[in-house]
């Protein structure tokens, strides 16, 4: 075993990348491809050195070149290169880390090249945004070297951002991949010695690249104090408006400069447009920000005319504009007003402008006219949701200091920042120059879409990600806001309970469902109870709900069967409790008289009557159902009563009468029509009744239907026996005909076909 460990360590050490240039190039290429020139500029190394390093890496198979021609070709990391980079990190881990780390340590510096860092974490980092101290830890005391106790001073900490998916965890004894530790970093040496010896390797990058970070390779560092946020670099905090929080819940990010949001999903576009559109001239699809369709300002048409007639003089444009506005106001129809309708279909016009231009339904030319209008006549920052192809006016916007945000997936713009989706709702990546990418979490108070329809059942609810919402002004808004709450808000629910009970119920937290239902459950459709954890309801609340909700009744039955004495010790008045008792007689030694309570509201009547059919109490229980009573009293039945019993009563209770009833019903056209519509497992009912095929010839004269298919399976099964043949494949169940044979073949445990037939087949198989 010792020889194997020594071999592993030797192999690890040999994987260290000795060439600084090669290591830096591989590390940079891990974030994406690039040309020789881009590598040279990004890493501040001379072009010949970058070219030589790339040539060596290509010859070793660590990088590949996409283009055949040398000039301008792009290089990217191969899988071999990625493995080599990982092996280098593991070699550094083996050389630098000695167990145990200082008590309370967050991690250690394994490598650094300028702003590029290789960090080893002793416990799970808080997120993609990493807080790093300006001073290392003392490896014996576990405190910051030179610390005066004011760890919260912003100049004592800085931010780095995680590159890639997250830490890769390694067992430092076996040098094999492992899982992350479950507990945070212990503060005592004894606690350290008892935990798994694992380190997570993280590739990171300092956000502030201009300021040197004093920690050297091998230095241990402490975790960021809870609730403390160091200052972001000025370029990320000096902007006019915040776009969201850095990382999961870090400081607010306010970029200085325009942002190109390359977003395709409507939900992502909506989140960003809502969060960054304040105090700006906004050109956007109104649905994204929950606005009703509003009139457009007439002045847009001036710029629309310029796009249509680029060579006309300003005076001619103004004359045409005046006449066009007059024609629109008077509803005149001519070639020009029809062109307006084509580019702005169904839109109304106004002299007023309220900072939002709704681009719903308008054409690309109409969108460009709206953009030119904002550039010429608004002094506010400009936010644009652009769903068309690139136009020249966008270049003008990009070069304008008022450009705050352009949302557009299919266009390329030269703006300081680029925003892309992070995959999850409210998660984005803010990309800066030099491939620096900062994860962003955007939480905004969503506006209700104008065409939003409230859910009709709990299954239709798709909850939002909000922790709090504003007070509602009407019932529809209340439902919308309640659904936006990810985990509920009892304070909000209390405020709206009287006026909007359903919204209040939806907004209730899991722990308060029972109490809320006790107060307002009677005002709601029972189906909404399924939002709650019904098993948390106490017996009385559950019993009350179970009278109107079958899921609650099932839970009540389980509860009575597991502890019957807890229920039986009280007077039984609830029909639901009576139902549960009647369905649980096997679990109860002395059955109480609950028949009157059950008859007051006979829940699950068919199941209860079947379960108690051979009990003395059945003579009273059948009062709940006319057809069960007819069968129990063995009344003289006509064809209509027979059919009604077949439809309403479980077949196991009338099976002894099945052959005679079937003969009666098959003898008339009305009876055959009724039988064709009844979904009954006839093979399971008739297999042991000794019927002959000639008794079923009238089945062929039945109308098509599920009942006919089932009876044809019976006829085929009987005919096969009479002819000494194997039965054909059945209609209601592939093996249905085998019920009539002496032996049943091996068949699957589960089936998507008729369940009663399937169960009967398995009973025969066991016999």
Q: How many DSSP H or I helices?
A: 31
**Residue share in helices?**
25-40%
Strand order of the largest sheet: 11-10-21-20-19-12-18-17-13-16
Structure summary, number of beta strands: 21
Overall tally of domains: 6
**Poorly predicted runs:** 1-13, 145-152
Describe the largest sheet.
10 strands, mixed
What does this structure look like?
The chain is an alpha/beta fold. It has 6 domains: 2-82, Winged helix-like DNA-binding domain superfamily/Winged helix DNA-binding domain (Arc Repressor Mutant, subunit A); 97-145 and 153-231, no CATH class; 244-441, no CATH class; 458-532, no CATH class; 541-624, no CATH class; 663-766, no CATH class. The strands form 4 sheets. A 10-stranded mixed beta sheet has the order 11-10-21-20-19-12-18-17-13-16, sandwiched between helices. Strands 3, 4, 5, 6, 7, 8 and 9 form a 7-stranded antiparallel beta sheet that branches. A two-stranded antiparallel ribbon has the order 1-2. Strand 19 (417-421) and strand 20 form a beta hairpin. Helix 1 crosses helix 5 and helix 3 (36-43) crosses helix 4. The longest helix has 18 residues, at 79-96. Mean pLDDT is 86; it is low at 1-13 and 145-152.
């Amino acid at each position: 075993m010792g020889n194997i460990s020594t071999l592993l360590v030797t192999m690890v050490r040999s994987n260290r990348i000795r060439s600084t240039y090669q290591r830096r190039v591989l590390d940079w290429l891990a974030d994406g491809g690039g040309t020789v020139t881009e590598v040279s500029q990004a890493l501040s190394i001379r072009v010949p050195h970058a070219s030589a390093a790339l040539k060596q890496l290509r010859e070793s198979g660590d990088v590949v070149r996409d283009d055949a021609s040398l000039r301008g070709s792009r290089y990217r990391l191969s899988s071999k290169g990625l493995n080599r980079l990982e092996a280098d990190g593991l070699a550094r881990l083996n050389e630098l880390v000695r167990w145990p780390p200082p008590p309370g340590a967050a991690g250690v510096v394994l490598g650094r090249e300028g702003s590029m860092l290789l960090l080893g974490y002793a416990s799970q980092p808080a997120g993609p945004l990493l807080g790093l101290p300006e001073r290392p830890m003392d490896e014996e005391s576990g405190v910051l070297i030179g610390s005066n106790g004011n760890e919260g001073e912003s100049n004592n900490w800085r931010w780095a951002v995680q590159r890639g998916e997250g830490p890769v965890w390694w067992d430092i004894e076996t040098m094999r991949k492992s899982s992350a530790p479950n507990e945070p970093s212990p503060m005592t040496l004894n606690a350290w010695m008892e935990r798994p010896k694992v380190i997570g390797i993280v590739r990171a990058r300092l956000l502030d690249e201009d300021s040197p970070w004093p920690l050297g390779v091998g230095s241990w560092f402490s975790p960021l104090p809870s609730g403390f946020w160091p200052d972001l670099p000025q370029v990320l905090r000096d902007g006019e408006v915040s776009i969201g929080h850095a990382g999961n819940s870090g400081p607010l990010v306010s970029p200085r400069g325009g942002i190109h949001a390359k977003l395709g999903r409507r939900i992502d576009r909506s989140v960003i447009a809502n969060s960054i559109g304040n105090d700006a001239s906004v050109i956007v699809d109104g649905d994204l920000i929950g606005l009703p369709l509003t009139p457009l300002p007439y002045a847009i048409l001036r710029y629309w005319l310029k796009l249509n007639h680029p060579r006309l003089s300003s005076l001619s444009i103004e004359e045409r504009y005046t006449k066009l506005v007059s024609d629109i106001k008077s509803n005149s129809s001519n070639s020009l007003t029809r062109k307006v309708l084509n580019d702005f279909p169904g839109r109304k016009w106004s002299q007023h402008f309220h900072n939002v231009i709704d681009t719903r339904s308008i054409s690309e030319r109409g969108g460009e006219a709206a953009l030119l209008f904002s550039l010429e006549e608004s002094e506010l920052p400009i936010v644009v949701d652009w769903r068309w192809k690139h136009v020249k006016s966008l270049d003008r916007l990009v070069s304008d200091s008022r450009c705050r945000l352009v949302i557009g997936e299919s266009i390329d713009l030269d703006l300081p920042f680029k925003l892309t989706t992070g995959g999850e709702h409210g998660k984005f990546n803010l990309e800066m120059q030099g491939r620096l990418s900062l994860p962003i979490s955007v939480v905004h108070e969503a506006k209700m879409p104008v065409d939003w329809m409230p859910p009709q059942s709990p299954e239709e609810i798709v909850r939002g990600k909000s922790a709090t919402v504003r007070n509602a002004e009407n019932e529809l808004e209340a439902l919308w806001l309640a659904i936006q709450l990810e985990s509920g808000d009892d304070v909000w629910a209390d405020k709206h309970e009287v006026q909007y009970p359903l919204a209040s119920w939806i907004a209730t937290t899991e722990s308060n469902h029972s109490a809320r239902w006790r107060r307002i459950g009677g005002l709601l459709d029972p189906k909404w109870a399924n939002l709650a954890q019904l098993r948390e309801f106490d017996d009385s609340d559950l019993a009350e709900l179970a009278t109107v909700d079958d899921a609650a009744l099932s839970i009540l039955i389980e509860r009575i069967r597991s502890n019957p004495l807890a229920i039986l010790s009280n007077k039984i008045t609830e029909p639901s409790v009576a139902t549960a008792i009647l369905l649980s007689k096997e679990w109860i030694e002395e059955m109480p008289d609950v028949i009157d309570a059950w008859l007051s509201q006979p829940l699950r009547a068919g199941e209860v009557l079947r379960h108690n059919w051979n009990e003395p109490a059945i003579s009273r229980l059948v009062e709940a159902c006319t057809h069960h009573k007819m069968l129990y009293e063995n009344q003289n039945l006509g064809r209509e009563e027979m059919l009604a019993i077949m439809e309403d009563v479980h077949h196991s209770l009338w099976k002894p009468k099945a052959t005679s009833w079937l003969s009666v019903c098959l003898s008339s056209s009305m009876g055959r029509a009724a039988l064709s519509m009844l979904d009954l497992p006839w093979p399971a009912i008739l297999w042991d009744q000794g019927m002959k095929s000639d008794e079923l010839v009238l089945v062929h004269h039945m109308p098509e239907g599920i009942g006919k298919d089932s009876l044809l399976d019976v006829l085929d099964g009987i005919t096969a026996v009479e002819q000494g043949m194997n039965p054909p494949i059945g209609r209601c169940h592939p093996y249905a005909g085998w019920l009539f044979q002496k032996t049943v073949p091996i068949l699957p445990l589960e089936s998507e076909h008729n369940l009663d037939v399937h169960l009967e087949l398995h009973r025969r198989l066991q016999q």
